[in-house]
Structures are given as structure tokens and as C-alpha cells.
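hey team, just a heads up i'm posting the complex here instead of the shared drive bc the drive is being weird again. everything in one block, sequence lines first with there labels, then the predicted structure for the whole assembly after. its two chains so it's a bit long, scroll down
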Amino acid sequence: MNFRAKAPKTIGARVVFLLGVLFCLAGCGRDPFLHRMKPLPAETPCRIAVLPLINETDYPLAETIVYKVFSVELTEMGNFWLAQEGDIRKIFQQFRIYPGQPLSPEQMKILADRLNVQLLITGNIIQMQENPGPNGSVNPELAVRLSILNADTIETLWSTYHRRQGIDYQTTMHFGQINSMTRLCRQVAKEIINLWFEQGLTPCDITSQY
Amino acid sequence: MRPIAGVWKRVVLILLAVGVAISAPLATRASEVAVFPLLDISRGPNGITLPVTRYLTERLSETGTEFSRPDMVISFMAHNRIRVAGELETFHLKQVEEDLGVAFVLLGAVVQDKEKPTPSFGVTLNLIRTYDGLTVWSYVGAFSATELLRPLGIGDITSVAELQTLIGDELVKRWPADAVKQEIRDSASIDSILLTPKFVRPGAEVHCTVRLRNRWTVGRTPKVFFKVNEQLHAGSWSEASGGYEATWVAGEQDGRYPVSLLLEWPLYGRTETVPLGSFVVDGVPPLVALELKGERMAGETKVFRGEVTVMPSLIVRKPIARWRITFKTLNDVVVATEEHAGNIPNRVVWAGHNVWEGQEVEGEYRAFFEVWDDAGNTASASETFELKSIPAEVVVEAAKKGEEVVVELQRDSKVPLAYWRLEMWSEEGRLLKQAEGEELPEQLSFELPEVAPDRKIGGILITEDVLGNKGRKNITDFFPPAGQNKAPAEEEQKSATETWVDEF
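-- predicted structure starts here --
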């Protein structure tokens, strides 16, 4: 068990932690929680498949929105080679499983072998909603859980939980506030990927491999 | 015969020909990116939005990138039963490369498109390389009207259309146009091109054979045409050459005609044009003139002694493919000829020998110079001249008239003399008389010193004509006894000793 944010043990540290929490609540934002169960493969993983996410909300096609935005950010920030979404969908069809339904470990192994990937990313959309804000604005809210799996063993290596809303980013007056669900998705994706990089996931130079 | 110029010109022409062959265009592409309809999440999991797709494509066209026609992409989707927008299988990426001839595919989704409660718009795009399925560029654009509030609300965003404009502006700035252009994709890869001839006369046949490296699967083989001046000539497959070939008749109008290979895939109405080269229609013959150098005029006739220098020239400058010079008698008997490829020489020197018999020739001849341009148009020029290498004989007859001696000189030649000298000697070796001059008189009269009646009077006549032919005539007896004066048995006609350089 290795959480990104741990409760401080000393009094002084607790004061600083509380101040930090207050500061974050004032608009600076909070870091995602990362649960590291196993280390990443020694070899830098460059080929990744993002499996269809599972939508646990009432928001229509929330899984598609997050999937599209997260995939773009992962490509842009990490320069990874991502398996084509169409290829993944095709394999789901062959398994006769609707996208959004979980795969069994055996099916994941077959999928990983066929796509020749080193890591699998799965996830759930736990919360996605657009709350009314002041002056007709929208305060989007998003909570996701994303996991990194070893494609060889189908073991979960890391699991990340992140929850954010638009007003988290408000600084002064309305400035900084995110009013668009797409922008919030992008922000959440960036924060998760940045945390992964901080914790040891290495960006790739995929162009050198082609 | 020595063609002075021409060797280097031939070398340059050969190098040029090799250069043209090497620099033949090898490949081209019709367009660079195929934009597939964007997925529109607001319309459901299978929704598409053609207006947004069209708008973003138009904006991206500002960067100079070439995009496939939308109807071609829709046709491809229908033919391959692609029902979901915003994604493609790797198999289909390969098919796009082969069928639509593009190096990249742009896939995307409109993930947010809401007018209320506040206008907001979000789009994701992925630029994917078709040959390996690598996403080379990606983009997320998202705007909300409330994030773009301005002081006092002046000029605030009020619609999604305005947000789309902002997305379009940002997209144009971030689009990797240079990277897209650098990607070389051999849609139609040319192995070899044979376009002959490069220069033709109007109405002549032109033939072209093209070998392609591409191998298309059954049912996806394109129709092949050769496009010449907006006219299409169907190409046919040739087992012998392993390529496509066509033959057509060149037009009547002079000019350069570019030739392109046009591949047509009827399935998607896609065409691709590959420039192959060009040929030139030339119906204008060259204009050539001929000039003789170093001649002496004998009346109207140009006379040479042995060596004849011919200087051909083009009245209008034009590339010449080959030339030929022929020396022949007035009865068209050829005594010398020579032919070379390349441009005309500055001068040609003929040593006056019959090339087949190896002997010096005398008499009247015609120099006939012919040229052929690259298209085969021909022209000729000729000059008549006379070769005179042997001095004309002078008939000498002397008679005594009283105290005087009269010497009659007869010379039958159009070539005038430049010098003559007559000497008369007694049998004992005493010089009796000497006369010389430039123009040979018909008759000389003079008094001779006393000579014993039984002694002979001999002498010599030396001549040199204006061409330099020297003659020497020895006369043993100017006054032979009756009955012997018509028998100049001891007369000797010697021509000047000359050494001619054998040129032929």
C-alpha cells in the first residue's frame, strides 16, 4: 500500500498539512491518490492499450468523453504508442462483449497479446456531472479511477483515484475556474499522468522506434 | 576529314540524357490527409457531425495541407462498413493508405457541444500515420463562454459557432503542417519510365512504357491512363515489358507536351497523377548554310589545290542530332563522305582524296552538307568547287623569223599563273635568253645571240599558278629538225613535289 498523500504524524506537520488542505480548497486543487501495488516493468513501456472505460454515472457517454481526452493527453504528454481504439473495439466484438463491460483476465491477456502492448489501462468514471454555478455558469465535477495493468501478467500495478470540480481551479473572482467538462477532463488527465511520471512512469520516444 | 567541334558536345548530350533518365520523377501523392467524419457524442455513440468536420477541414486547409475529398472518405466508410466514427482499425488504416492514397488519417470526436446553460464546445483530434498506425499529433480543444468573459460583457461569446472559430484558430496554429508535408508516401511508385522519342515531328508516333513497383490486390487495381495535353490514352499491360504502355500520335502544333500517368480507382472516384516527362513536337526544319574557305577564284569557279575547308553554319540556332558531309562529282559519284552524331562542326577539312581509292582527285566537285534535328527534320546546303592539284601544261613552240625568234606559249587552264620564267641555253651551257613575268604571254619575240647552226638550243619553262602548283618543262631543242618538232620525246612535265596529309 503506498498512497500518494499520507497523513502527517507530527503536530507541526499536521498544521502545515491543514494549511495545505485549506489552500487547496481555496482553489489550488488536490493531487490524485495513487495506490502502487507492484512496480512497473523494468523495461520502459511504450506500447499501451487504453481499454474502454466503465461509466458508473448517469452522464451520457461519460466513458467516451474521458477516454478520448485521456488518450490524447497520454499520447501528447508521454509520446506513447497507443493501440487503435478501433482495434480494441474489434476484439471486444469478437469476445461478444459490449464496450464498457469488464473483460476477464484471460480475455485481457489475449487482447494484450494481439495488440502487442506492454501495459493495459482500465478505469471507471465514478462521477461526472455539471452543477449550476453563479451567473448561469456551469461547475463540472469529475471523479475517475484508473488502473495500470501489466499486459503479461494482467496484474494491477498502480491504481489512481482522482476527483475534481471546476471551482477547484478558481483563483480570484471567476478567474481560473473551469466551466467546461472537456477542459476538466483534460485537467484531470494531465494531473493523473503527471503524477504517474513523478512516480516512475517514463515518457517514450516512440518515433525512434519507427 | 576532321570534325573540329562536336566531341565535347556529344559528351555533354550523353550526360544530359543520363541526367534526364536519372532525374525522372519517382513518386507522388494525391493528397496528404484524409479527414474522417468526427464522432458527435451529443448525437449518441454512433453520431457524426459533418458540418464541424467540414469546418475544421476548411480551417486546416489554410495551413497548405492537402485533404482528400469528403465524398471519397464517406464512400470508403460505406464500402468498408465502418459504422463508428472517431476510430479506425489498423486494417482500415492500411486500406486508407492503399485506396485513398494518403499518408495520414485525422480522426476525432466532438465531446462537448452545448448552447445552454452556457455555450461550450470541446473536440479531440488524432493525426495517425497510415503505414504504421502511429499517432503523430493529437489535440484537445475546449472552450466555454463563461471562461471567456470580457470586462463589462462587451463582445462576450454567445454561441457555440463562435467557440468553434476559436478552436479553428488554435488548431491552425498547432497543426503540424511541415511534418505532414515531410512524410513521403509512395502511392504510385515508379520503377522506370521509357518515353520515346523525346523530339518528334508532327503526326509521328510517341510511345511510353511505365513500370510500377506497386502491387495492388485483386479488385483494387486502378485503371491506367497516359495523360497528354488533357487527352487520355488508355495504358495496356504488357507482359513483355512488365509495365503499362501506350502509343499515340503527336499533334500538329509545335511545342512541349507534358506526359503524366493517371491512375483511377473507380470505387472511390479517386485519381492520382504522376508526372512522367515530356516530349517536344517540332515541325520546323533547321536552316543551314555552307561556306568554303581558302579558295581562289577562277572566273566564277572556286578552285582549291588539294585541301578544301568547308564551314557549315546554322542560320537559326537549333540543336542538331546528326550531320553528314558528302563530296561528289557533278554526276553524283560520291568520292568522300562522313557522318557524325551531335551538333555541327565549326569546319570540316577534306584533303582532296577519294576515300575509297586513296588517290588525289581533280576536277569539279560539290560539297553537300546535310543536318537532322532531334525531331528528324532535315536540311541541306551545297557548294560547287574545282580541285586543281596538277599544273596545267604549257605548249611551247618556237620558230625563227629572220633575226628574231618567236616563241608561242599556249596554256589551257582557268587558273591564272602567278609566275613564269623561260630560259634558253646553248648546247655548251651558255644562257642565251631569259624572260619572266606574272601573266603568261601568248607570244614572245626576241633576238638570239649567234649559235653554231649544228648546235641545239634547249631550255626550261618554269610556271607557278595562283594555287601554288609549280610546273617545270625541260625543252631539249627549241628548233628540232623538220619532222621532229611535234615529238617532244624528251619533254618532261613535272609537277611540284607536294606532300598531302591523308585525311580520309
